[in-house]
Amino acid sequence: MSLYQITQWCFFGFGVYNLIYLLWKHNAYFKNKINLQAIDKAATATLILAGTIYTLTFVTDWVFIFIHSESEESQHLFSRLKGPYGFSLYAQQLSYIFFSLIFLLKFVRKISLLRLIFGCFLMLNFERIVIFTTSIHRDYLPSSWTMYQPFWGAFIIDWLLKFIIFCSFTTVIYFIQNRTKK
Fold first, then answer.
1. Which pTM was predicted?
2. Where are the transmembrane segments (predicted)?
């Protein structure tokens, strides 16, 4: 498990949290029962911290790639960047960086439509889009449609695992924020 993976899980977990938060925020029953502002402050702090860590590791990795540009792995990466699906290598990282750090702005946190759009972009995975596109492109024959049967339980477990990891980091930050105030 790498730092990239943990921060990516936090991005996805924030996207799921964001959907739940927006439902609770506009529901009168939950609005009066739960202190949503304190939880949301901790959640956005978790997202911004994950975005900062991801940005630092992204920049560090690319510096090392350019320093060791003579190696075989670097040459392979550069050839992938020039390929037809090269956008999936840098678009994913840049969207994670942009959409996580845009929550530093107060108006983005307050406007529900922007939160919904940016949260959905954090849940988006370009690598899966490329895999889906190439599998449709190559396997368009009806005889190969039954080759892959998705297991919906695995998707649900994957979403829950990422959401629980994000919530655990958010809980730690929530208690740190509230402990320092008292």
1. 0.79
2. 6-24, 45-67, 87-105, 112-131, 151-176
